[in-house]
Amino acid sequence: MKPIKIGIGGPVGAGKTQLIEKITRALDGRVETCVITNDIYTKEDAKILIRTGILPADRIIGVETGGCPHAAIREDISMNAETVDILIDRHPNVELIFIESGGDNLAATFSPELVDFSIYIIDVAQGEKIPRKGGQGMIKADLFIINKTDLAPYVDANLDIMAADTKVFRGDKPFYFTNLKTNDGLEDVVNWIDEHVLLTGLNELN
Amino acid sequence: MDSSLLALFQLCDSNFPSGGFSHSFGLETFIQRNRVHNRDTFSQWLSLFLKEQMVSSDGLAIKLIYQALEENDLDEVWRIDRLLTIQNMSRETREGTRFMGRSLVKIAGTIYDSELINLYSKRIKEKDSFGHPAVLFVLAGYHLKISRDTTMLYYLYSTIVNLVQNGVRAIPMGQTDGQRIISDFQPILKDAVEAVNRLEKTDFGTVAPGIEMAQMQHEYVNVRIFMS
Questions:
Q1: Which residues, in sequence order, are bridge partners of residue A4?
Q2: Does residue B63 belong to the interface with chain A, where contact is any CB pair within 8 Å?
Q3: In this structure, are residues A10 and A124 in contact, taking their beta carbons and an 8 Å threshold?
Q4: Are A135 and A106 contacting, i.e. CB atoms less than 8 angstroms apart?
Q5: Is the Cβ of B66 closer than 8 Å to some Cβ of chain A?
């Protein structure tokens, strides 16, 4: 069976790499996972994942995007799509592939030809107004995450306002607050992946 | 106007998703060393890349494959395809053309109704061929009954346009300078086609060492925005 692909988008420093690191750790032993990282300038994110994460190096590939991170996940997915094929070739039983976009602006959305689901992550310290800006990345994502809630008091961000603004743009589509440093909210994210992506529990219902 | 030419234009269009924006083919090494930093120095590199690598590798491959197709010698087509990849000294450039070739073949297979392209796609899937943009391009040109020299000229043109876009982004250069370079290269591209036609089979794959070394050294540049 073809693996499910989840795109992870969000501005630089929001916590994309850490989110993948935490999710892969939570799914370890249960779901066979690989990761593609799209750094803007280097292969730093791939290196960090190899160093801190649970996945072995041959399951993580960094792809440089010529300074066009948004193009690599939407207008011209060639390099990412070929890398998906390489990972499948290398690990024929892979079930889940994360594609981490290079940190880009709020407009970055994923091509449906590249991913099956997308998650968009921002952090509180980037400003309370980020959800209010209505970026397409946040609006179109299947799941929206607001990370680093612990920093809210230091940057005068009101989480209630961020939640209300998110609902204006996303309607009933899900979003969670997280503090990935302490794993706050991580369970919600993993449960969402289980229920909506992996469809865990479907067999039991039947 | 010939509608088959339009069909080939689609493949030349910088909008065609080939992944070319991720590959500098050694240009980034020269940028990192500050050897390429403006329009003049970029033009010098581009001219060398065209004359000292494109002509004797991709250009000559197009000529040889087109001839082989006319003689219905498919074994020779696949042999040239193989040589084109394995003669390339740089791992990143080899992987780059392979990635781009595979990507182009996937889309070309859906827009052109060509048995040859389908066969090439099958060979790539079964790992009998590597995949290369120049090979896909000549298969498309031959399928569309575009002449050999025109096919070659358009391929070289699309390569230049892609690299100019990457140069504008990576150096950076002004957009007007970028377009001036493309315009200035028109006679140079025509000369390049003539140069290919003067070459023999034995010239295939002779590349200026400096160009090739920079492509190999790209693996170790500090800041990378390109895969090659």
A1: A96
A2: no
A3: no
A4: yes
A5: no
φ and ψ at residue B216, rounded to 5 degrees: -75, -40
N residues, chain A = 206
| Nearest Cα residue to A143 out of A91, A82, A186 | A186
Does the structure show a pLDDT above 80 at A41?
A: no
pLDDT in tens, A145-179: 999 999 999 999 999 999 999 999 999 999 999 99
Give the best residue of A76, A89, A90, A111 to mutate against chain B (max B CB count within 10 A).
Answer: A76
| Pairs across A and B, CB distance < 8 A | 61
List Cβ<8 Å contacts ≥24 apart for B169-176: B169/A66, B169/A67, B169/A68, B169/B21, B169/B225, B170/A66, B170/A67, B170/B24, B170/B27, B170/B28, B170/B31, B170/B225, B170/B226, B171/B31, B171/B36, B171/B37, B171/B38, B171/B42, B173/B38, B173/B39, B173/B42
Q: What token pair was written down for A108? A: 């970055």
- For A170-204, the pLDDT digits (tens) are 999 999 999 999 999 999 999 999 999 999 877 66
Name the strand (E) or helix (H) holding B182.
Answer: helix B175-198
| Closest CA of chain A from B55, distance in Å | 25
ipTM of model? 0.87
Please judge whether B224 and A41 are an interchain contact, meaning their C-beta atoms are less than 8 angstroms apart: yes
Widest Cα–Cα separation across chain A: 49
Helix or strand holding residue B164 (H, E): helix B148-170
A64 vs B contacts (CB less than 8 Å): 22, 224-227
Residues B158, B159, B165, B166, Cα dihedral to 10°: 160
Query: Which tokens sit at A113?
Result: 């030809």
Residue A161 identity (one-letter amino acid): I
How far does the CA of residue B22 sit from the closest CA of chain A (Å)? 4
